[in-house]
Each structure stands twice: as C-alpha cells, then as structure tokens.
Amino acid sequence: MIPRVALPWRNGLRLRVPSGSRGCCRSAHNTLRNDDGRPIVISPPLVSLDIPDDWAPCPAHSCFSSPISSSNEQTATVIDGKFIADEIKTRIGSEVRRMKEGIGMVPGLAVIVVGYRRDSQTYVRNKMMACAEVGIKSMVAQLPEDCTKDQLLGALSSFDGDPSVHGILVQLPLPQHLDEGKVLDVLRPEKDVDGFHPLNMGNLAMRGREPLFIPCTPKGCIEMLLRSGVEIAGRKATVIGRSNIVGLPTSLLLQRHHATVSIVHAFTKNPELITCEADIVVTAAGVPNLVRGNWLKPGAVVIDVGTNPVEDPSSEHGYRLTGDVCYEEAVRVASAITPVPGGVGPMTIAMLLSNTLDSAKRVYAFT
Amino acid sequence: MIPRVALPWRNGLRLRVPSGSRGCCRSAHNTLRNDDGRPIVISPPLVSLDIPDDWAPCPAHSCFSSPISSSNEQTATVIDGKFIADEIKTRIGSEVRRMKEGIGMVPGLAVIVVGYRRDSQTYVRNKMMACAEVGIKSMVAQLPEDCTKDQLLGALSSFDGDPSVHGILVQLPLPQHLDEGKVLDVLRPEKDVDGFHPLNMGNLAMRGREPLFIPCTPKGCIEMLLRSGVEIAGRKATVIGRSNIVGLPTSLLLQRHHATVSIVHAFTKNPELITCEADIVVTAAGVPNLVRGNWLKPGAVVIDVGTNPVEDPSSEHGYRLTGDVCYEEAVRVASAITPVPGGVGPMTIAMLLSNTLDSAKRVYAFT
C-alpha cells in the first residue's frame, strides 16, 4: 500500500526562476504565496506572469568558428527567400489581374502607422511597394506619435467600414501609451491579415480548425520549408523565442504540420542542448549571433527570423542587419539555412500579399 | 562568396510521415504537390493535415519493472488530487455562501448531454453532485442520441439567455453527426467554463492576454504542481498528447508559467527520449501504460491525465481505470506522481466549479 501524502500547499508556493537560467535576466515572481482566503485557487492571473524575454546579449557581434565546424567548408544550401518570394508575388500578381478582369475588383490593404520609428517607416514603405508590384490597392493612415486611442480606433473603424479594404494591419510596435492588445481586439478577424487576433490565433492552435489568416512570418517560414522539400511531419523542431508575432504562431503551425516541437525562451536553461537535437530550427529571439555553430545538429535546417541591426562602420548607414544565427559557423553545420537579409524578410511580405488576396477572394467569393 | 541555390520547389513537395514514426499509423498526406496555377501558395489548409493521433497500443496492459528501477522501493510522493480538490471545493463552498448572503445569488452551471454514453453519463453525474456539494445551482439538458444540430443549438441558446446560468458546457464527445467545432463556436466565450472556445484558447496562448476561462484539466494540473511546491519556471516540461481539450492547453499554460515545453504526439519518433529529459511530465495520450519507468528522468514530477478503462475480471464492473503511466514502475523513478484514479480527475471537477464561480463573480461584479 502506497502512502498518500497531503502536500504542504499551505506553506507558501514559490514560482522561482532559476538563477542559472541562461539569458534570463529577472525573476518571474518573487514569491507566489497561497492566500488563506480568496482567491479560491492560487494560480495567479496569467498576465501577472508575463515578463519580457530579456536574453543575455551575446559577447561576439561577429562570431568565429565553433568547435563543431573544424573545416571551413560550407555544407548548407542557402534557402533563397527572395527568389521564392518573387515566385509567389508573380503568381499573386497574375491572380490579382484575373480578379480585376473577372469581376472588376482588386484586393485592398490598409496600414495604420503611429509615429515615425525609422524601422516601422521602412517596413511600411516596403509593404506599399510590394502591393504596387502585384496590383493590390494600398493605403496608409499615418498618425502622430502622441495620437490618442480614439484617433487610432477611428482610423481602424473607417478602414473597417470600407468595402474596398480587405486587410488592415496596425504596424507594431505601438507607442507605450497605446495598448496593442486592446487595439488588435477591435480589428475584426475578417480583416486581420496579420493573423494576430486571438480568435485567429486560437483557430491556428486548435486541430480541426482553420484560422482566417495565419501570421505572415510563421507562414513564410513554413512556406520556405515546404518549397525546399523539407520534411516536417515527425521531425524534431525547436523554435527559439515565443513572441505572439513569430515564436508562438510558428510553434503552433509546425505542430499542425506534425513536427515534434520544443519552444526555447529566455527562461530556458542550456538552450543549446535542446536546439542541437532539432532537425529544424526556427530562431526569432532578436539576439545577434545567439545561435552558434555548436548549437546545431549537423544537417539541421535553419530558418533565421532575426533581423538585428549591428554597428558596421564599413556599411553605408553605419550598421548592417544580422540574424540570430552565427551564419559563418552555421553554414558549415546545417544542411540548409536562410540568409539575413534575403531569407525570411521577403517571405513575410509575400505572405501579407497572399493573405490580402485570400481575404478579397473570400469577400467576393472569387475562386 | 556563398553560392545561392534556388531550391527546386517546382518538383513537387512531399509532406512525408516517417514510416518509423512511433505510434504513427498513417500518413498525413500522400503527396503535397505544387500546383502550377492556383493556389498561390502551396501550403495546404491546416484542417487537411488533421489526422487522429492513433498511438500504437502498448503490449502490456499491466506492466512490470523497467531496467531503470532495479529496486522495489517507492521514491515518489503521491500527489493526492482528491485531497487538494476537496480543499478547493471547501473554499468554493464558502465563497458561494458568501455570495448568497451578500447578494442573494448563487452561480449556475448548465450541462448539455447528447446521447447516453456510459462514461459521459458518469462524468455529468459527478459534475452535478459536485455542484450540489458547494451550493452551485446546476441543470442538465439531456438530448437524444439522434438530436438535430438545431435542437442542440436551441438548448444552448436557451441557457445562453438565462441570466441564472453563468457557465454552460457541452459534454464531449458529441455523436458523429454533430460538428463539435461549430457547436462550440456558438457558445459565448463569457459562459464557456470549459475554456474550449477558440477566443479563450487564443487568449490562453498569447502573452499579455487573459482568457475568461482556462480549460479545467490543464488548470487542475498546474494547480496540483503549484500546490505541491513544484517549480515550473525554467524547468523542462514534456506534454504527451496534443488534444484541444488537454494536451494543447496544458502546453500553452506551462509555457505561460515559463517552463520549456516539448509536445510529444503520435508522430513523434522515440518519444521516450524527449520524455526522459523532462523535469515535469504531463501525459494525456489515452494509452494505458504508454509511459514506462525508463521513459522518466529520475526525480521527475509526473501528472497522469489518462483515465483508460482496462479489463479486470477481479473488479466489480469487470474493468478498472488506469492511467497513461505504468504506475508501478514510475513510482520508483519519479519524485512525485498523481495516481489514477484520485489524481487529475477530482481536480478537473474542482476547476469547473471554480470557473463557474469566477463567471458568476464577474457577472455580478462580486469580489
């Protein structure tokens, strides 16, 4: 007979973040104590657990050969995201023409930008140019940095009521004084071409369901894997980073494709040990050179979502973009890898165009 | 200069399910070919990938000592789910009384049952009895096996319009002719005490958001871990099974608590290798004795959600309930383990009562 032990849950429960936790910079909770009265159950509200994933910065901004890659030979095929994205955009363009000729309509995308962050302005300009390329009508609402929530919601609802707009996106991040979550909740799932609405996210997560839109970057990652002939089902995949925009939906999407998924984040101890078991690594931590060559299983497929500006006096603007992966090392260990730039970036925009086209097709029942 | 290779995505893409995939019984897709015209992007609809997780049945229904546990000594503390659930129910009862005395209202739970499956009837009876214990008003709509979708939706909307009903649950599984997804979509998230609505699931998944309700079994699992003083943040957790009801929300919830989560399913090759790295194992595969002693890391905490009826001539009804874990082996390897029965089961019902109370408190703004 096995003794049953009533566990000492009265004695205060600790949600400790292990100090050794690699890249973890602060504790999730100092102490989580059981209240003798209310609340009935002691689980804290989930938002009370939400802490930014602050990764420890990597010492080397440009990295060097890791032990695992003794040779200087490149083994990896470079997955050319620009090439694949161009192929997709060509097809989208022909579909848009077919729609215009068939029913006299074109898809419409509206972008709302608040403030003048340089990176946001660049992203928006690139999206507009891509829309123009394929014949999608695009419009931008540029709001001042200090705009009120009501001004933002006003812009949203005017686009929402415009039947020529089939997709609306709010360029993130928003200034501190605006609550992204509350803003995105107002955006109808039917026009949520970014796929960030919780209803679309829930339908992405749940088997047997289909979201109206899959977030663009995760969709682009899977697209590159599929078009590169990479087997996903039954393979081990490690996703590094768990943001609502990339890491989370990528892990959900890989799982819908029957990968065995592990999610690494800033609280993960020894992330390299989990990463080096993966056949597929998707990294979206936003930490330059976080993933070294010796983090990778030889032959792994590496999708690098990171686009981190690092100083580079030799480059025109004094900085260059680098991924989360130490490319020079990884390219000698992986079987295939996406470059930064020219990998995931172009795919994200192509998927945005694809989502906008799909939305217009749905609205007009155009097949 | 690294050569860029345009990958041969024209040559037909294969989404193969590896034949060696443990417990995987059929292929997700025979061939996934790229169409030269539409669709624009070749990713298939996600639902077209959905295949039941058919686990290979385990040979032994009663299992024996595994290599890792040479001694016959029990090392594991038994996490007494019934004890913890009783504690929670006592507190819920006092809260219900406080509400009744304070505002003259009590929480109300409505259950809709279709057909007469023996297990469903038992579950519903247990839920009703638990409601009675704590003073929650409960009502059941029993519909015939062959009821139409409209009859079911009619029952749903009548409960939905009843202000004395704060929680509605549809007992699953539904008969084949009724689409669970479509039915659950009709249930308003505000009364979705099971937490199965995609909007609640999306808000469970996304950091910075709070679902109105967390699914009862996953919430019960976390509750047992927290009340047992088990550290979650920064620990490795493996969830076995990815159902919308248990596996998926459990993995999302563990991640919100900052565990490093891996999800094992029927397509996973060598699931034991992933499981034996975990500090916390939650298993919800529905396969008796799937998890052997040698699947576990010594000192792991094991939460066994499985409740599988197996033949047992010696027992009163000719069968007994067993978990997914080979208990006799695991109890010698783990540091803590939940028994079946008497582990997760009682917690699930306690969390349902807790969700129903929370819903009523929200409606009446009762704190």
UniProtKB/TrEMBL annotation, chains A, B:
GO cellular component, one term: cytosol
The keyword Hydrolase is annotated on this UniProt entry: yes
Domain of life: Eukaryota
Stated family: Belongs to the tetrahydrofolate dehydrogenase/cyclohydrolase family.
The Tetrahydrofolate dehydrogenase/cyclohydrolase NAD(P)-binding domain, residue ranges: 215-362
Subunit and interaction comment: Homodimer.
Any Pfam family hit: THF_DHG_CYH_C
This protein's record includes keyword NADP: yes
Residue ranges annotated for the Tetrahydrofolate dehydrogenase/cyclohydrolase catalytic domain, each copy included: 79-194
Protein name: Uncharacterized protein
PROSITE patterns the UniProt entry points to: THF_DHG_CYH_2
PANTHER family, per database record: BIFUNCTIONAL PROTEIN FOLD 1, MITOCHONDRIAL (PTHR48099:SF10), C-1-TETRAHYDROFOLATE SYNTHASE, CYTOPLASMIC-RELATED (PTHR48099)
HAMAP family: THF_DHG_CYH (MF_01576)
Gene3D superfamilies the UniProt entry points to: Leucine Dehydrogenase, chain A, domain 1, NAD(P)-binding Rossmann-like Domain
Record's keyword terms, sorted: Hydrolase, Multifunctional enzyme, NADP, One-carbon metabolism, Oxidoreductase, Photorespiration
